[in-house]
Amino acid sequence: MTAETAVVIPALVLLFGTLLWGVMAAAAHIQCVDGARAGARAAARGEKEAAVRSAVRSAAPHGATVETQRKGRLVHVRVRARTAGPGPLALGLSAEAVAMDEDRTEDAFHAAR
Questions:
Q1: What angle do CA 69, 75, 78 make, to 5 degrees?
Q2: According to the model, what pLDDT value does residue 109 have?
């Protein structure tokens, strides 16, 4: 009985640690997605770059980086972060959201009338 326990308990601890790490990585990715969407909405409303970054950082994981880019009437916001974990367990995460610039959309709507 003792030999089996000596093998099973470390395996269970490893399995639990792996599951916990996976859940934390999934939660961090969801935070990246939420941060990108919040930033895209703020940028689409025409808010300043500092306000866009503040919106992203309020939802994104700690230490995330933000890139914003405008392509025509579209605003792209990309959030990058790393999962918790040592060395190779710290995976890179990325999420991007796109929104249409509300100011330019309104101008285009009025020009078409």
A1: 60
A2: 47
